Structures are given as structure tokens and as C-alpha cells.
Amino acid sequence: MSNFEIEIEPKFDHLAMVRSVLSHALAAEPVLKQERMQDLRLAVSEATTNAIEAHRDNDVEDSVKISISIDDVGVSVVIVDRGPGFDPGQLKPHPPVTDPERLEYERGLGVTLMRRLTDECLIDPTPTGTTVTLRMLR
Amino acid sequence: MRCVGEVALVPVIEPTFEVARYGAWAVMRVSGEIDMATAPKLRQHVQNVTARGPDGLVLDLDRVDFIDSTGLGVMVGAAKRMRMSDGALRIVCSQRHLIELFELTRLNEVFDLFETLDDALADVPSGEAP
What we know:
The complex is a heterodimer.
Chain A: E1 2-8, H1 15-28, H2 34-57, E2 64-70, E3 74-80, H3 110-117, E4 120-126, E5 129-137
Antiparallel strand pairs in A: 1-2, 2-3, 3-5, 4-5
Helix pairs in contact in A: 1-2, 2-3
Chain B: E1 2-4, E2 16-22, E3 25-34, H1 39-50, E4 56-67, H2 69-84, E5 88-92, H3 96-104, E6 112-114, H4 117-120
Helix pairs in contact in B: 1-2
């Protein structure tokens, strides 16, 4: 069993390094198949992007915290921000892909990907921050 | 950045964007990782290329190691720009993980996907003298 803690300043330049840490942690204890490692890498990157954005949009200078736990059951990654609380229920659904209006929407796929790519995606918003827990079972 | 745990970090490689002409079309070969930090560079390159008014744009993603929803969004924007000028957008992508990402988001129904660059340019006149 392994645990990793990462703290990053709210800068998008740190996203690649977070993915690198995750990849190396998963490679050291290969409890997931390669394809599922890639899925988790993307989901974690999406959640971390949202966390950094929550800090930047609200002038929060605190670090974003990412915790990785690997055990016999699988992998859990927890992303904690100190933003004003992200409510995924407020996301406006995209028009159908067959609708030309779909091309007006460049953003808004991140949460969909987090949910579809992981075995469990919990988003817990509070007025003082959001905790996202992503789990992949082995 | 602070990290607690035994990991060997590798340097982050900046993405590259190589642009070439093929007849009246433009081909952009993208490499590296496309995320919220690097997507603005991709968007800028796409805007520079589409501003020249090519008949079509091929985005070759075969050397892309990672792409997130922001990168997909840039491609949605590229499709919109090309459609506004009656141009075509084609995407070269043979990596299974990337193809599944397009399928998961149903963007495979928005974009024309090709396995190879040759396939993407098969019906495009090269513009060279016979």
C-alpha cells in the first residue's frame, strides 16, 4: 500500500507534473491495467483543472491538495480545493452533437469525463471548498 | 509544488505544432500533452492557420500523449471556424484511447476521424504539377 500527497500552487502549468506523479505512482504498484491508468490520469487532470480554476477565479492563493492511495482494492485520488464550492448540478447540458449549436460549446466536458472514466466519482461541494474523490477498482 | 512519496519525476515536455501545406489544405501535426496550460497555444496555432483560409485543415494527433476536455474544446472551436468558411476539419487519430475519448463524448459524430494522414488526404489534390 502506498500514499502520495501533492500540494500545488493554483497554476495550470502544474497539471503535467500532477499527471507525472500519478503515472509514476501507478507504475510502481501496477494494480490497474494500462488503459484504466490512462482513464484515471485524465479524470484526475480534469478534477485538478477545476480545482485550480476555482482558486484562480476567486483569487484564492492557497495550494490545491491531491492525495493518492493505492492498495489491494484499487486506487483512490482525492482532490481538495478552497474555492467557493463547485455544484455540478449547475452545469448546463450541451446540445445534441447533431445540433449545429453544439459547436458553440468548447467547455463543460470535464465532469462528464470524470464520471464516465472512473468507477466512482464523488463531488462534495461546501462554501469553503470542494472535495472530489475518484476511485478505480483493480 | 510539494510532493510526499517516492516518485521519480520526469521533465515536462512542451507540445509542438508543425504546420505544412498540402495543396489548398493545411496540415497541423501536434505532439506532446494538451491540457488547460497548453490548449491556448493549440488554439492560437489553429486560429493562425484557419485565418489563412485553407479549404481544409487536418489535425494530426498521432503524436499527442495526452489530451483533456480543454483540448477537445479547441477542436470543437476549430470545427466551428472551418464550418463558417465552408472548409473541412479532419482529425488523424489511431490511438485507441483517444478514439474512445471521442466516442465517449460523441465528438466522433462531429469530427471526421481518420486512422492515417494518408487516409485523411486521400481525396485532397496535392497541388503539385502532374
